[in-house]
Specification:
Layout (H helix, E strand, L loop, with lengths): L3 E6 L5 H10 L5 E4 L2 E6 L1 H10 L5 E10 L3 H9 L15 E6 L6 H20 L12 E7 L2 E7 L21 H10 L8 E3 L6 H10 L20 H13 L9 E5 L2 H13 L6 E5 L13 E4 L10 H16 L5 E6 L4 H5 L5 E7 L2 E8 L16
Parallel strand pairs: 5-6, 8-9, 8-11, 9-10, 11-12
Antiparallel strand pairs: 1-3, 1-4, 2-3, 4-7, 6-7, 12-14, 13-14
Helix pairs in contact: 2-7, 3-4, 5-6
Amino acid sequence: MAKLDLIATCPMGLEAIVAREIRELGYEDVTVENGRVTFTGDELAVCRANLWLRTADRILIKMGQFEAFTFDELFEGTKALDWPDWIPGDGEFPVEGRSHKSQLSSVPACQGIVKKAIVEKMKERYHTDWFHEDGPLYVIEVSLLNDIATLTLDTTGPSLHKRGYRKLVTEAPLKETMAAAMINLSRWRPERPLYDPFCGSGTILIEAAMIGWNIAPGLRRSFPSEAWDAIGEDRWEQAREEAYDSLQDDKPLEIAGSDIDPKAIEVAQAAAKAAGLANELKFYVEPVVKARPRGDYGCLITNPPYGERLGDQKEVERALRQLGNLSASIPTWSTFVLSPSKQLEHNFNRSADKRRKLFNGRIECQLYQYFGPLPPRNVNKEPSDQ
C-alpha cells in the first residue's frame, strides 16, 4: 500500500478536534494548520477517514506542492505529478481553484493551465489526444497561497456534514459537523442524559446518538473514491465491515429534545427515522420554559436562535434568560450553548466556566461552557473516562 499525504479540511476552530479524531483512527503523523489537518496514511486511511471523521469537511489526497510565480511554472509543476497513477483513461477530472496572496491571481486561468498540464501528462500514458471523461469522478483542486501551488484530489464529494439522514431542513439548521464538535467538546458520555431545549431539526440529538452507539457518520452515504481503482473496492468493503463491527447499538440512551415549533419537531423525527434512531430519541413540542430534562448529571447542549437569522433580538434575549433559568434549575447538569450573543452570560446571570470561539458558518460564536459535577463512579461497573 502506498504512503499518501492526506488533508482533512474543516471549519476554523475545529482543527484540534479533527486532529484528535484522526489520532483515534490510529494515524500519528498529524499536523494542524488553519482550516485543515494534514496526516499520512495509506489507501485504507482514505476510506476510514471518510467514514469516521465527524468534524471534518473533506478528505483530500495531496498530489504535490511547489512554487508557481508564472503560468509556465504552474504548468510544468503540475505536469510533473503522477496523475495517470490515479486517473484512468475514461476518468472525469474537472479542476477547481482558488488563489490568495499570489501573483497568479486569476483563478480561471490557473484552472485552465492545470487542466492542460494534466491532459498532456495523460496523453503520455494513454496514447490518445482526446479524453471523453465519462468514467469515475476525480475532482482536482489547485490552491495558490503565497505563490505556493498545492494540487489535490477530492476523495469525498459532497461535504462530510451531509450524512444522508437529513432530507428536510428547518430555517438556519446547525451543520452536523458542528453539532458533533459541540458534543465532542462537552463531557457527555452515552451513560449520561442529554437534552436540547432548542432542538430544531434534531441534529445535536442525532449526532449524540450516533456517537453513543459508535455509528460511523459516513456509513449511510457514498463517496466518489469508491469507484477509484487506485483505492479499490476491497479496501472500501474492509473499512465498512470494520465500521459495522464497531457498532454498539445495545447501549441504552437517554437523549431528548424539544422545540416550540411543531414543524421543526416533524423534521427532527423524520431525520431520526432516516438515521435509524427513531426509537432512541424523544422529541417534545414545547417552549424552553416548559422543558424538563430528566435524570441527573446530564448535558444540556444547544444552539438557541440567533437575532441575526431568526426572530428579533428581544425574543432572543428572552429565550436566553429562560435557558439560563432552565440551566440553573438542574444543578447536577453541565450546559453548553453555542451563541454569537455577547449578552449570554448576562442573561444567564453567571459567567461561563470556559468559552471557545467557533464559527457557525460565517457567524462568529462562542461555545459557552458551564460545568456541573461529574457523575459519581459506580463501584459495580468499570470506571469510565468522565
